From TrEMBL:
Residues 57-87 form a coiled coil. Residues 84-337 form the TauD/TfdA-like domain. It comes from the Eukaryota. This is TauD/TfdA-like domain-containing protein. It comes from Rotaria socialis. Keywords: Antibiotic biosynthesis, Coiled coil, Oxidoreductase. Pfam families: TauD. GO terms for molecular function: oxidoreductase activity. GO terms for biological process: antibiotic biosynthetic process.
Length: 382
């Protein structure tokens, strides 16, 4: 219970900012909210859809050659890829571009795609090594599950999200918009589904602005602690659920943390704070805006695409899909969770999920017995 009090006290400091906003309801009192957000990451999907050249970058032949050479060197030396550094994975040309892309994640629109990697020429180990090495130029890879997987496999394992120890990326179900437990998430598309599996992203500050304009009373609820299920991956001494607001405002930054299915499933715990009808109304409104074609941006990832998304300013999603019967053709993506140097400060309550709020060294899932490792095949994943 002491942890609950500590986390709650940290969150209560979130709403001590900016101007007063009156609700349209006559019986609603005035209170303080952050100002409307006008940032590079405050965008509308309907606008960006027509500007693909702004966020899809074609890799050059020189950059591809650099990636291949660096990966082959590591593999030939049989080095531990999980401990690779940027010095051990030199990218003379692409490396400087990736620094600019990191800035685009943190202070820009919050996502980008690198296109053109000839994935059909690589086996899974070489593809994974290229992806991991490139990711190290953006940030520090973090464990993605209790088993310490630093490189994740996103495939339908025939599981169902109704199992409270299953995470939704292990199914073929629609995910809903969410954030991951890291500063940024990267995906390398190896194979696409037969039908569906479309990638979606949405701006958190655009959602915030819309809710602030229409229902500021509901925004207040989303800036208070809400229980989110850990889905069985519980660090020693921690609660089986998190207590982090959907929106936090800290040192001038609006930060989002959200996974609706896990908010709903956290209600299975007797001691978790209850969702009131007003909470459900707020969460439903958040979801409705996120799924509005005006706000969300959809994109079909092609084999060889590398997508990177900034978790503190954007949410991402994936539509449900129908997969191929042939096991060799089934939808398959590799995933990285990254901690970004030079990133924003986060409220103390985020340490309950990220382990620490230390910039450049936070994020991931670590429980008792977690040992960082790279599973090169899908059979190694949970």
């Amino acid at each position: 219970m002491q942890q609950v009090k500590t986390e709650t006290n940290a969150i209560q400091r979130v709403v001590q900012q900016t101007d007063e906003v009156a609700d349209h309801k006559s019986n609603y009192n005035r209170y303080k909210l952050p100002l409307e957000q006008h940032l590079a990451s405050t965008w509308y999907g309907s606008t960006l859809k027509c500007r693909e050249n702004d966020w899809i970058v074609k890799l050059t032949s020189i950059e591809i050659a650099e990636l291949e050479e660096a990966a082959e060197s590591l593999l030939n030396l049989q080095q531990n890829v999980a401990s690779v550094t940027t010095e051990q994975f030199p990218l003379p040309t692409l490396g400087s571009k990736l620094l600019a892309f990191r800035e685009e994640l943190i202070n820009g629109r919050g996502f980008f795609i690198l296109r053109g990697l000839p994935i059909q020429n690589y086996d899974e180990r070489k593809a994974g090594t290229i992806f991991y090495g490139l990711g190290c130029h953006l940030g520090l890879p973090r464990s993605q599950n209790a088993m310490g997987h630093m490189l994740g496999h996103v495939r339908d394992l025939g599981m169902k999200s109704s199992d409270m120890n299953v995470r939704i990326y292990q199914t073929n179900e629609r995910q809903t918009f969410h954030t991951d437990s890291s500063d940024a998430v990267g995906l390398l598309c190896l194979k696409t589904a037969k039908v569906g599996g479309i990638s979606l992203v949405v701006s958190a500050s655009a959602i915030f602005n819309e809710m602030r304009a229409q229902r500021p009373d509901l925004i207040e609820l989303l800036m208070q602690p809400i229980a989110t299920d850990r889905r069985g991956e519980v660090p020693e001494g921690m609660l089986p659920y998190l207590l982090i607001p959907v929106f936090s405002f800290h040192e001038g930054y609006l930060t989002v943390f959200y996974q609706r299915q896990y908010i709903d499933s956290a209600q299975r715990f007797e001691n978790a704070p209850r969702l009131t009808p007003e909470h459900v109304e707020a969460l439903d409104m958040f979801d409705r805006i996120a799924n509005d074609p005006k706000f969300r941006l959809s994109m079909k990832l092609e084999p060889g695409d590398l997508q990177f998304v900034y978790n503190h300013a954007l949410l991402h999603d994936r539509t449900g899909f129908e997969d191929w019967d042939d096991p060799t053709k089934k939808r398959h993506l590799l995933r990285l969770w990254l901690s970004l140097p030079g990133d924003r400060p986060l409220p103390d309550v985020f340490a309950s999920r990220l382990g620490t709020t230390e910039i450049g060294n936070r994020g991931g899932i670590f429980v008792c017995g977690t040992i960082p490792t790279i599973p090169w095949t899908i059979t190694g994943d949970k």
